[in-house]
Amino acid sequence: MTLPGKEATIADVVSIAVECIDCGRNRWWKPAELRRYGVNGQTPLAALSERLRCSACQADGLPGRAVSIQAAFIEEHERRRRAARRRNEREMPLERSRRA
Length: 100
Ligand SMILES: [Zn+2]
Description:
Residues 77-100 are annotated as: Disordered. The chain is of the alpha+beta class and 100 residues long. Helix content is 38%, strand content 19%. The chain contains 3 helices and 3 strands; from the N terminus they run ββααβα. Zinc ion binds next to helix 2.
């Protein structure tokens, strides 16, 4: 979930799923693992699929360029974590006051 008008970059994601349309291989990558492909925090998500290649297809002499990218955004992840924390904070004192 990104704000409208703001382009999503690697800095916004927790992990990235890269699926090869040609051979069906897929894998979740951490942004740090993509550094060796010249990907950094400022790399727009839209540019990712141009940079990544399927190594299995390349080994077979194919271009390996038909990759589809799916990103798990930090905000979603954070929001879920914060919601869980809030729930814990709220429940504990309530439990106590109800019993008192
Ligand atoms: Zn492939």
